[in-house]
Amino acid sequence: MLSVDEDALICDFAETYHILDLYSLPIDLAAVLACGLREDSRIKMKISGISFPLRTLFLAAVMDNTAWLKWAKTKDAEKGVNQPESVFNQLLKPQERKKTFLSGEDFETAKAEFDKKIRLLGRE
């Protein structure tokens, strides 16, 4: 878990067990406590690759089904138009990650590369 996201594990220990110094614990106790973290803890969600707690996904599915049942009784449903969008599917879409830079020099290098690509696209 430490190799996946040390900060997430530290936050989970602080929130769940009120332990601020993870490294002060014996390793076997830290392992037991890490396994005991709830399924929607930061580290377990990151390891499983989900962005939202299971409860949120269930609620989105209920909301989608309710909206669809309401829509199914309309004239739009008879024509097959204006079907409600799925909140569940929106939650499952990969989230766009923002680019971060470790230094101003890294930013300037990336900016120069981006500007070069933009200039090349403008010529085509």
User: Strand pairing plus helix content: what structural class?
Assistant: mainly alpha
What share of the residues lie within helices?
A: 55-70%
Rg calc: 23 Å
- How widely separated are the two ends? 47 Å
Number of helices: 7
Uncertain ranges: none
Shape: flat
% residues in beta strands: under 5%
> How many strand segments?
0
- Compressed to H and E, one letter per element, the order equals HHHHHHH
How would you sum up the major sheet?
Answer: none
How confident is the prediction overall: mean pLDDT?
88
Structural account:
It is a single chain. The chain is mostly helical and 124 residues long. Among the domains are: 47 residues, no CATH class; 39 residues, no CATH class. Helices cover 66% and strands 0% of the residues. The chain is built from seven helices and no strands. The longest helix is centred in the last third of the chain and has 20 residues. The relative contact order is 0.08.
